[in-house]
Design brief:
Layout: H1 2-7, H2 13-28, E1 41-45, H3 58-68, E2 72-78, H4 84-94, E3 98-107, E4 124-130, H5 142-167, H6 174-178, H7 189-203, H8 207-215, H9 219-226, H10 229-240, H11 259-268, E5 272-276, H12 283-286, H13 288-297, E6 302-305, H14 316-335, E7 340-342, H15 366-386, H16 393-398, H17 402-415, H18 420-427, H19 435-439
Parallel strand pairs: 1-2, 2-3, 5-6, 6-7
Antiparallel strand pairs: 3-4, 4-5
Helix pairs in contact: 3-4, 7-10, 8-9, 15-17
């Protein structure tokens, strides 16, 4: 069993597919037991096509959900759709409710004087798309995705050039040391940090002295960091690549694609543009009603939240403030008809694999979180099989009222069984029936 799980994270796609099929066969034969389904979801997991702290591939994330009994799971990779087809296929094989998405940074001119959710960077906003039915991108939108990726590559190369000079002799080669850390060649800052950690081990005989000098920390602080890889990598990234660090690149209005262009790409693929909310403490997010309304005008129809960073906080005063912001934001999302996409990201070594929905802090929000997951899954399946997802002409004609449209896809998400059972039922249905017809299929 452990060998199959290891193969699920192999960079060779054929190895992952073989392991997936073996696991599915052993589940069917009763050899492998999985946990009963629980009322928990993680709809925001980065796979190793961007960066996953556990090294999980899209197939491995689908297996995690099946093994642990998650009601639904979703991948959201940075600047790439490389994992979409594999992930949805793995969910089909393992009978898991899944959704796939993309995340990137964009520029919002109307908030050029306010920090939104990218610390210290006015006008720059992390944004997402969820509910992609496939990795296919229409010809007319391919230049947008290619532009996003080229911008990311150029930023990464500048970061490495600057940090190499500072961290010498622990320098790295972009193609040889960094690109090789991810199967699709889609490099993030976290891959760059990983490469520097590996390089330091090879090129420095005294890691404590090396990192103490480079990070301006005491020997004792470095000794503690070397025993805690997540903290070490987070510290390197914060000190060297974020604002004030030698590798930091000050963004301008031309550094990232416009929000309108990102949303155009997402909609053209049959997916749903989504607002990414941080914690409500930045100037931009303090003006949440203005910010959300603007993004809705530009196409957003879902709100993404990372709950863990809004309640699982040691400092009580900070926790009280951010938890209050979380509750207020969920209420605002309801008023604005924005279903929720929630998850833990898993793009750090210390990210939890699932949110603690049964805690005192999150229990009041659990139904909202589950409803949001059902909505996104319902849209995903209807779009994949019938072309009748949230953005379809059929949906807009049937449900000119957004609240009613959201309710329909949420109901479908709760009713459609995961895996091939639900898919086969929809495959035998016509794509021009009434909403009531589809609701009565299950």
């Amino acid at each position: 069993m452990m060998e199959y799980e290891k193969q699920l994270n192999h960079f060779d796609e054929k190895c992952r597919e073989s392991a997936l099929q073996q696991i599915a066969q052993q589940i069917e034969a009763g050899v492998i037991k999985t946990s009963p389904e629980m009322d928990v979801v993680n709809m925001h997991c980065h796979s190793f096509f961007s960066f996953n702290g556990y090294g999980y591939s899209p197939s491995a994330l689908a297996w995690l959900a099946k093994k642990e009994g998650y009601k639904a799971i979703g991948i959201v990779d940075f600047d790439t759709l490389d994992g979409v087809d594999e992930f949805l296929h793995a969910c089909d094989i393992l009978n898991v409710r899944g959704s796939a998405g993309i995340e990137t940074r964009s520029y919002i001119h109307e908030f050029s004087d306010r920090v939104i959710n990218s610390p210290g960077e006015p006008g720059v906003s992390y944004v997402m798309g969820v509910g992609f039915p496939a990795s296919f991108v229409p010809v007319e939108s391919q230049p947008i995705l290619e532009d996003m990726q080229i911008r990311a590559i150029n930023r990464n190369k500048v970061i490495i050039e600057r940090v190499n000079a500072f961290l010498s002799p622990a320098s790295v080669d972009y193609e040889g040391d960094v690109v090789t850390l991810t199967p699709g060649g889609n490099v993030t800052e976290r891959h760059i940090v990983q490469a520097y950690v590996l390089s330091s081990r090879k090129k420095s005989s005294d890691l404590v002295k090396f990192w103490s000098e480079k990070l301006d920390l005491s020997n004792d602080e470095v000794i503690n960091l070397l025993q805690d890889l997540p903290r070490l990598q987070n510290t390197i990234r914060r000190k060297l690549m974020k604002k004030g660090g030698v590798g930091y690149i000050e963004p301008t209005g031309d550094s990232f694609p416009l929000l309108e262009d990102v949303n155009k790409l997402i909609v053209s693929c049959g997916a749903i543009p989504s607002i990414a909310w941080l914690d409500g403490t930045t100037q931009g997010e303090m003006d949440a009603e203005e910010l959300f309304s603007l993004q809705i005008e530009k196409g957003a129809a879902v709100l993404n939240i990372i709950p863990d960073r809004n309640w699982n906080i040691k400092d009580e005063k900070t926790k009280e403030r951010k938890l209050y912001n979380l509750y207020q934001t969920v209420e605002m999302a309801k008023e604005l008809n924005l279903p929720l996409n929630v998850g833990t990201e898993m793009n750090r070594y210390d990210s939890p694999k699932i949110d603690a929905f049964d805690t005192e802090e999150l229990l009041p929000l659990r139904k909202d979180f589950l409803d949001g997951a059902a909505f996104i899954y319902g849209h995903t399946v209807m779009q994949r099989i019938l072309g009748l997802g949230y953005q379809s002409g059929w949906a807009k004609a049937q449900f000119p009222n957004q609240r009613e449209r959201n309710l329909f896809y949420m109901k479908m998400g709760y009713q459609i069984p995961p895996g091939m059972q639900g898919i086969k039922v929809l495959q035998n249905a016509r794509c021009d029936e009434s909403p009531e017809f589809y609701l009565c299929l299950f």
